[in-house]
């Protein structure tokens, strides 16, 4: 398991690397800086791994943050829109994406969100399964939405958004 923490400016370099490995159209440094410093609706979190200690440095305090994944959402008018979520390919399949999604949804519920929305590539089976697991349903489709390959985007929503047994399991 990882620990979840609010994303800070010093995380951007690692997040950019995960973004580049995860998306055909990655965000820029300036976009993340804008989200963290100027966009009042934005809430971003990272999943942190404890750095591995070798026998050489076992007794030293571990330095730095090791970012395994990230999630961001915009809170607008009672609605949480998941804007991005990604896990480093090295750490996929270990529950980190789920932890990040749950952390974002819980945070949004804490702010008063009653609905969560997102867009996902129609072919993104891993993400679709993750969203279905947390109650998201397809409510629409944007034709030829993605610039790189003209793929459709599925619009998904979960409403009402509330804490349930699954959420408490992962707290
Ligand atoms: C989507 C993503 C964030 C999932 O992160 P992850 O840490 O690998 O996922 P988890 O290990 O937490 O898995 C949670 C659930 O997601 C689904 N899932 C994850 N990987 C999957 C895969 N390879 N195939 C099918 N379903 C998968 C499953 O429902 C899984 O639940 P289960 O373990 O009970 O079956 C990750 O694959 C990723 O970063 N992809 C690239 C970026 C991306 O597509 N982001 C979404 C944009 S909308």
Architecture blueprint of SSEs:
Blueprint: E1 3-6, H1 12-22, H2 29-37, E2 42-49, E3 66-76, E4 79-87, H3 96-111, E5 115-121, H4 125-133, E6 137-142, E7 153-158, H5 165-169
Parallel strand pairs: 4-5
Antiparallel strand pairs: 1-2, 2-3, 3-4, 5-7, 6-7
Number of individual domains: 1
| Order of strands, widest sheet | 1-2-3-4-5-7-6
Distance between the termini: 11 Å
Task: Return the CATH class.
Answer: Alpha Beta
**Low confidence ranges:** none
Series of secondary-structure elements, N-terminal to C-terminal: EHHEEEHEHEEH
Helix content: 25-40%
State the secondary-structure class.
alpha+beta
Fourth-level CATH superfamily? Gcn5-related N-acetyltransferase (GNAT)
CATH architecture: 3-Layer(aba) Sandwich
Cα radius of gyration in angstroms: 16 Å
Provide the list of bound ligands, each named once.
Answer: coenzyme A
Question: Strand share of the residues?
Answer: 25-35%
Number of helices: 5
What is the average of the pLDDT values? 92
CATH fold topology: Aminopeptidase
Large-scale geometry? globular
């Amino acid at each position: 398991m990882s620990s979840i923490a609010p994303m800070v400016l010093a995380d951007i370099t690692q997040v950019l690397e995960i973004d580049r490995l995860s998306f055909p159209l990655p965000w820029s440094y300036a976009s993340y800086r804008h989200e963290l410093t100027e966009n009042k609706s934005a809430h971003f979190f990272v999943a942190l791994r404890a750095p591995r200690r070798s026998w050489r440095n076992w007794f030293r305090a571990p330095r730095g943050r090791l970012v395994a994944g990230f999630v961001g959402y915009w809170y607008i008018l009672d609605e949480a829109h998941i804007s991005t979520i990604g896990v480093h390919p090295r750490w996929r399949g270990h529950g980190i994406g789920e932890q990040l999604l749950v952390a974002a949804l819980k945070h949004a519920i804490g702010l008063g969100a009653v609905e969560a929305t997102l867009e996902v590539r129609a072919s993104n089976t891993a993400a679709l399964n993750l969203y279905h697991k947390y109650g998201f349903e397809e409510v629409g489709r944007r034709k030829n939405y993605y610039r790189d390959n003209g793929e459709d985007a599925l619009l998904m929503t979960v409403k009402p958004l509330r804490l349930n047994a699954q959420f408490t399991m992962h707290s």
